[in-house]
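Incident log, entry 3
Record: Ankyrin repeat domain-containing protein (349 residues)
Problem: checksum mismatch between cached and fresh output.
Input:
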Amino acid sequence: MAKKKTTLPKDFEELLSTATFQELKDIFNKCDVDARGGYGKQTALAYNSCSHELAKWLVEQGADLHAADTWGNTPLHNRSRSRLGNIESLLLLGADVNYRDNQNNMPIHAAADAHQIESTRLLLAYGSKTDALNSNDNTPLEQALLTCRNIDIKATTEISKLHLKAGVGITTKMKKLVAEIGKQFEFHRANFNKENIAEFDLALDELYKIFGVEPVGKRVLHDGKSQIEIKGKTWQEQHQELWELLVPSNGPAETIQGEIIRVTGRIANELEGNGGINWDADYKKMTDKFIELIKQGKQLPDGELLEAEEIIIQIKQKNGDTARLCELGVKWVIDNPVPVKLSPVDYKR
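Fresh output:
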């Protein structure tokens, strides 16, 4: 008997939607029931379009319900991430709801990461643990809160209610994560879709109430005309205050003052937070723009201006004191409190 193939047909995902049940079964006359396909080398059971009829037949033929892909994800992990995953099919066939991937994530962590309400509901109904920690020491609910983007707020609120109803206790860590969700929402409020912002506001208010978190104040951007005034005592406090006051949620600032703060913050975040992985020509243009801008208006003392230029030389090599650059940027803004409109820039970051 010829050895069966270990790789699924390249168009297997399409065939799941177009082929008959018999035609799909015939594929496994030549392919092993645990043959792999797709970028992550997953088995047929991991595809969202795998019908319950086919899944049941595959398991009857000996397919492994817990066959892991490249990252250790079982079919239940993968399908829990999609609203089209139909995970109840796998659950009915006996998939382990508490199986761990390479990062100690259970399927309910995967559902939380993708903010899938129905997957979460089903996994809880089938006995998923709610207090298990992944490799980053996050419970499933903490994972949902940690990865919540603005667009996920409504789903995260519903997922939170499901977990709390299942007996999960509220922790200080969760409260901090909810506050951070609020901060991010307020920072980007000006650019949020005006047609549905009200429903996201309501969901966020409910999230605050559920976790007993004081709502984050609505963000008020500077008008671009009046004198810039700040209250912070340290340069770090001042930089954060200026960031919230002058920096838009995306694109360049309206004023020179705002762009100096934005550029220093973006550079610091890229080099210190991301290790320079996204560093490109645009970032180098931003460093040049910084020097150009601080040479306008009331300049820094000669010694500090020279220091800034030397830091920029080092930063272009993905080195240099980004904190000091932020501090010098703050000093220039404080010395130049009257807003100056920024001319168009030649970078997109």
